[in-house]
Amino acid sequence: MLLPLLRITFGILVVGLTAYAASLFIEREQTGVALLVSAVTLGAGALVLITDLREKQKKITTISAIYFGLLLGLLVGWLISIATAPLLEFAFPNERRMVQIGQVFITVISCYIAISTLLQTKDEFRFIIPYVEFSKQVKGGRPLVLDTSVIIDGRIADICDTRLIDTKLIVPRFVLQELQAIADSSDRLKRNRGRRGLDILKRLQTNPKIELEMHDGNVPELRTGERIRVDERLVILAKALNARVVTNDFNLNKIAQLQGVDVINLNELANALKTVALPGETMTVRVVKPGDQIGQGVGYLDDGTMVVVEQGRPYIGQETTIVVTSVLQTPAGRMIFGRPDQRLSGTTTPYPGGGSSGSSTSNTRSGDSTASHVSLGNKGGEAASGGTGSGTPASLGHKPGDSRTGEPPRSPDESR
């Protein structure tokens, strides 16, 4: 309710000032000038109202910059008006109103210059007293400055959807320009990467869970006109804003750490969030290809962790349960080593025919009346020899009472 009332009050004041200014020229019978002044004044007021209606989301830093700029402009304008008053009185000896108009004009110019300067430098505002400097301190979480690589990667948008990040994200203008240059590249791969980065920025901008800021300010080191690499600009800007850099670039990570800037590497964050496996635990993995060593198989977990399976080559194309034997942490990620869980399978190595090394194979079918092998040293031979224990083999013989011969068992006398 207060905002519409403020706009109505502003409109009434603009109309009143316009009428007063026009009346001054009408008294002198300068109707044309009065109409011109009225049009300019009303147009300026309408432009201010339209700009206010278009900019619905305003920042407190902008209001502070306008406030301090207005105070500074009034002070400087008043001092300049006092200094130039003798010159204006000499130029218009009998025109007191013209002197006042000149002083107001000087004050307006001073206010404009002060407000414009503070609006352009509000992010790096410093209030300096000799030997003392007051700098802006950010309360709460420190802002995050996004690198080009992390924007193209796209995982930062997924992280923001989880509400893990509640601090302000800053995208410098030169990073946006680099993305536009990549999107306009003649190389198809680079062009697709640049367009993906712009799509990710649009997704971040429309995400109501985070605050995204396009930073247009320049730090003092960037105003020299020298051509500085984007990586160096990011580090300098992060130091000036007391922010942290989010990147996937290994070199930028090292450069920022050497200069005392905190860095969040998404690759390291992803490795920290991967599955933790301890030796002796079991897990299910699908073996997709052979390993470097003989008999090894290689599979991957859902998070991309590589799993090396000893004696896992026969399991290629299958899901198997393994027992973790060791875990290796490398800069590129985590590797898990394991072997098939024999407690669940009951075998050591599967074979394509469906058998296993732990089970015997018989070539004799049930109900077959013909023996398929020669039994050497069986107990039937010992019985046929009269139980002397000589161990003489019975060639092509059968056990006593074998149902396959259809003969009853013979006594030792009959065997003699």
TrEMBL record:
<feature type="compositionally biased region" description="Low complexity">
    <location>
        <begin position="358"/>
        <end position="370"/>
    </location>
</feature>
<dbReference type="InterPro" id="IPR029060">
    <property type="entry name" value="PIN-like_dom_sf"/>
</dbReference>
<keyword id="KW-0460">Magnesium</keyword>
<feature type="compositionally biased region" description="Gly residues">
    <location>
        <begin position="378"/>
        <end position="390"/>
    </location>
</feature>
<feature type="compositionally biased region" description="Basic and acidic residues">
    <location>
        <begin position="399"/>
        <end position="416"/>
    </location>
</feature>
<keyword id="KW-0472">Membrane</keyword>
<feature type="transmembrane region" description="Helical">
    <location>
        <begin position="65"/>
        <end position="88"/>
    </location>
</feature>
<feature type="domain" description="TRAM">
    <location>
        <begin position="276"/>
        <end position="337"/>
    </location>
</feature>
<dbReference type="InterPro" id="IPR002716">
    <property type="entry name" value="PIN_dom"/>
</dbReference>
<feature type="transmembrane region" description="Helical">
    <location>
        <begin position="32"/>
        <end position="53"/>
    </location>
</feature>
<feature type="transmembrane region" description="Helical">
    <location>
        <begin position="100"/>
        <end position="119"/>
    </location>
</feature>
<feature type="transmembrane region" description="Helical">
    <location>
        <begin position="5"/>
        <end position="26"/>
    </location>
</feature>
<dbReference type="GO" id="GO:0004518">
    <property type="term" value="F:nuclease activity"/>
</dbReference>
<feature type="region of interest" description="Disordered">
    <location>
        <begin position="334"/>
        <end position="416"/>
    </location>
</feature>
<dbReference type="InterPro" id="IPR052041">
    <property type="entry name" value="Nucleic_acid_metab_PIN/TRAM"/>
</dbReference>
<protein>
    <submittedName>
        <fullName>TRAM domain-containing protein</fullName>
    </submittedName>
</protein>
<keyword id="KW-0540">Nuclease</keyword>
<keyword id="KW-0808">Transferase</keyword>
<keyword id="KW-0812">Transmembrane</keyword>
<keyword id="KW-0378">Hydrolase</keyword>
<dbReference type="GO" id="GO:0016740">
    <property type="term" value="F:transferase activity"/>
</dbReference>
<dbReference type="Pfam" id="PF01938">
    <property type="entry name" value="TRAM"/>
</dbReference>
<keyword id="KW-1133">Transmembrane helix</keyword>
<dbReference type="InterPro" id="IPR002792">
    <property type="entry name" value="TRAM_dom"/>
</dbReference>
<dbReference type="Pfam" id="PF01850">
    <property type="entry name" value="PIN"/>
</dbReference>
<dbReference type="GO" id="GO:0016787">
    <property type="term" value="F:hydrolase activity"/>
</dbReference>
